[in-house]
């Protein structure tokens, strides 16, 4: 069996240990005589899976007791509407920082429901940096302030959070979920699709401070009402059962490794290998300003479209797949999420060194 190193931005690699455990438990989960795929979501055995996943997530992320953890469907993109429909309920205003396509889509969706203010944008330089914020431009009575923490397509991340005072801060953390410790108490809500760093596609995790709940509009669809899901422990309807099970296995893997502090060190080591190479290469260079570089998504280019295409093709043949950059950016992007082993990045760097030698 030859497994490739998959640098896809999502869905992406899962830890091999997790895949092996899932395979071993496929036909008979813990003596139940069934696969987790076949179980009732109301069964006792399933209850221990979903409750166990929540408990592990709370432990790993150090989630305060006054936050709800919701396991939902619809992807991060569905939350772009659910967030205004649940929280844009007093002044009906919200502030946004546009750091890429996902922030922009969230802004455009929310703008259907209220008055959305763009406090800053990095569109002028293809989102290659996180804009400096001027607090005096923030909307004082905004219902919330919205950011996309790690910008998957462009490879930027907030190293410092905006100081929004009493205005609730909401962040899309899809592509940096569980990559390092974060202080959940600084946010009114963090959320993300699981398919980048946590599980297969199909699961969206929302972590919401309790005082934010209970203010949805009358017209908010039941399935988009966070209060409904919170009241029903994410079992208002059938949840993405199998994906939550894989999520639990990934959380166990993270805990066994030593938690998010250890994960962060490993991620920093991988990112440094790649960025150091890019900074010293005469052929390849990173596209993001140094101070805003993401640990998870590393976009890079050569000066020639032809060379980019040749590199992507030869890399794939050598077992380094999905290195093509997003269609709106071009070039290359290596997504090096939690499940990418250090060895995968070491081998990629070696491959890039050799490619540079042969082609210059
Ligand atoms: C992938 C991604 C999304 C979109 O997620 P879906 O689950 O496909 O809706 C949104 N935000 C960020 C930061 C992402 O990386």
Assign the structural class, choosing from mainly alpha, mainly beta, alpha/beta, alpha+beta, or little secondary structure: alpha/beta
Order of helices and strands: EHHEHEHEEEEEEEHHHEEHEEH
% residues in beta strands? 15-25%
Radius of gyration: 21 Å
| Mean pLDDT across all amino acids | 97
Beta strand count: 14
Unreliable segments (pLDDT under 50, ≥5 consecutive)?
none
**What count of helical segments does DSSP give?**
9
Bound molecules: pyridoxal-5'-phosphate
Q: What share of residues is helical?
A: 25-40%
What gap, in angstroms, lies between the N and C termini? 34 Å
- What order do the strands of the largest sheet run in, or round the barrel if closed? 2-10-9-8-5-3-4
Largest beta-sheet details:
7 strands, mixed
CA-based shape: globular
What report would you give on this structure?
The chain is globular and about 65 Å long. The strands form 4 sheets. It has a 7-stranded mixed β-sheet. Strands 11-12-14 form a 3-stranded antiparallel β-sheet, with helices on one face. Helix 4 links the parallel strand 3 and strand 4. The chain has 360 residues and is an alpha/beta fold. The mean pLDDT is 97. Helix 1 packs across helix 6 and helix 7 packs parallel to helix 9. The site of pyridoxal-5'-phosphate has 12 residues, from helix 3.
């Amino acid at each position: 069996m030859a497994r490739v190193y998959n640098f896809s931005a999502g869905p992406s690699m899962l830890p091999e240990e997790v895949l092996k455990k899932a395979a071993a438990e496929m036909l008979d989960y813990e003596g139940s005589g069934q696969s987790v795929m076949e179980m009732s979501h109301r069964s006792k055995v399933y209850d221990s899976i979903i409750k166990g996943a929540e408990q592990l997530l709370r432990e790993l992320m150090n989630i305060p007791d006054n936050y709800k953890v919701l396991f939902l469907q619809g992807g991060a993109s569905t939350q772009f509407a659910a967030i205004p429909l649940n929280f844009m309920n007093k002044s009906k205003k919200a502030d946004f920082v546009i750091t890429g396509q996902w922030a922009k889509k969230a802004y455009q969706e929310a703008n259907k429901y209220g008055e959305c203010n763009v406090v800053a944008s990095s569109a002028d330089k293809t989102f290659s940096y996180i804009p400096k914020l001027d607090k005096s431009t923030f909307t004082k009575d905004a219902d919330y302030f919205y950011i996309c923490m790690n910008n998957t397509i462009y490879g930027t991340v907030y190293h410092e959070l905006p100081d929004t005072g009493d205005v609730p801060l909401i962040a899309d953390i899809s592509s940096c979920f569980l990559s390092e410790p974060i202080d959940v108490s600084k946010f009114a809500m963090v959320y993300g699709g699981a398919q980048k760093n946590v599980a297969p596609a199909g699961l969206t995790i929302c972590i919401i401070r309790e005082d934010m709940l209970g203010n949805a509009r009358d017209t908010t669809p039941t399935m988009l009402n966070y209060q409904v899901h919170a009241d029903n422990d994410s079992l208002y309807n059938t949840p993405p059962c199998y994906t939550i099970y894989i999520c639990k296995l990934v959380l166990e893997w993270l805990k066994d490794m030593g938690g998010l502090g250890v994960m962060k060190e490993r991620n920093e080591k991988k990112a440094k290998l790649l960025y150091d190479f890019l900074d010293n290469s005469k052929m390849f260079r990173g596209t993001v300003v140094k101070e805003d570089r993401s640990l998870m998504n590393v976009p890079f280019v050569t000066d020639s479209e032809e060379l980019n295409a040749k590199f992507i093709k030869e890399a794939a043949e050598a077992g380094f797949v999905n290195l093509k950059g997003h269609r709106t950016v071009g070039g290359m992007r290596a997504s090096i999420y939690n499940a990418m082993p250090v060895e995968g990045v070491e081998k990629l760097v070696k491959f890039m060194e050799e490619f540079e030698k042969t082609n210059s």
